[in-house]
């Protein structure tokens, strides 16, 4: 009748049209699993100290690698990383540029990953690259100074300062343009340095590190 109340029998599931006030919201459910989207299996990435060890092709949790900001899953970017052993650069001093290029191509390892980058991190990167270009242009200007000013026996000084300034700009530019840096890549895994602690906190500990 119209005055009777309908009660759910114990153990019977609620109708799909009813709302459970104690259930997590949709946004909370979306953030519950850091490994998004769901097509990527949990357990493909770990942390060992401040280093991320991950299988090639893994999507990292949606936190910015530089600022630690929580991001949407569509803010993950795909990046192909490359790595060479540090000893290969000695080849340049032993044999010159051509042998170096050959050894670099032979020993080069690559791997693709997905990680999150916030707008703030991208803006910092753009400013850093622009500053590096400005420093490089200053170095070029120093190199041409003897053409427009009488330097006498010190003509070599602006040239040396210009070369050092350009080298400094190249080093600075390579640092600010790299959001993360691989410390090692093999056939299966990538070792990644430079990630924000907030991102590291989302990952389980590398099993081989337990008990060390």
Sequence-ordered SSE layout with sheet pairings:
Elements: H1 26-32, E1 45-48, E2 51-55, E3 59-64, E4 76-83, H2 90-95, H3 97-107, E5 109-116, H4 119-143, H5 145-148, H6 156-177, E6 181-185, E7 189-193, H7 197-200
Parallel strand pairs: 3-5
Antiparallel strand pairs: 1-2, 2-7, 4-5, 6-7
Tags for this model:
212 residues, alpha+beta, four-stranded antiparallel β-sheet, 7 strands, disordered N terminus
Your description of this structure?
The chain has about 210 residues and is of the alpha+beta class. Helices cover about 35% and strands about 20% of the residues. It has seven helices and seven strands, in the order αββββααβαααββα. The strands form two sheets. It has a four-stranded antiparallel beta sheet, with no helix packed on it. A three-stranded mixed beta sheet has the order 3-5-4, with no helix packed on it. Residues about 1-40 have low confidence and may be disordered.
Compact overview of the structure:
The protein has seven helices and seven strands; from the N terminus they run H-E-E-E-E-H-H-E-H-H-H-E-E-H. It is an alpha+beta fold. The strands form two sheets. It has a four-stranded antiparallel beta sheet with strand order 1-2-7-6, with no helix packed on it. The chain has a three-stranded mixed beta sheet with strand order 3-5-4, with no helix packed on it.
């Amino acid at each position: 009748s119209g005055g009777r109340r309908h009660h759910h029998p114990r153990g019977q599931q609620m109708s799909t049209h009813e709302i459970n006030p104690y259930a997590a919201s949709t946004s909370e459910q979306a953030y519950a699993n850091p490994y998004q989207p769901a097509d990527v299996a949990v357990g493909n990435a770990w942390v060992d100290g401040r280093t991320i060890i991950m299988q090639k092709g893994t999507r990292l949790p949606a936190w910015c690698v530089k600022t630690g900001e929580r991001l949407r899953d569509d803010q993950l970017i795909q990046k192909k990383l490359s790595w060479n052993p540090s000893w290969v650069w000695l080849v340049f001093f032993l044999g010159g540029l051509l042998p170096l290029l050959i050894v670099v191509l032979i020993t080069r390892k690559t791997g693709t990953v997905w990680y999150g980058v916030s707008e703030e991190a991208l803006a910092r990167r753009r400013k850093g690259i622009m500053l590096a270009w400005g420093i490089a242009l200053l170095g070029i200007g120093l190199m041409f100074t003897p053409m427009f000013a009488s330097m006498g026996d010190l003509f070599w000084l602006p040239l040396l300062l210009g070369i050092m300034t350009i080298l400094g700009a190249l080093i600075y530019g390579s640092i600010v343009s790299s959001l993360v840096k691989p410390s090692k890549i093999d056939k299966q895994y990538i070792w990644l340095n430079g990630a924000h602690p907030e991102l590291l906190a989302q990952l389980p500990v590398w099993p081989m590190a337990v008990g060390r």
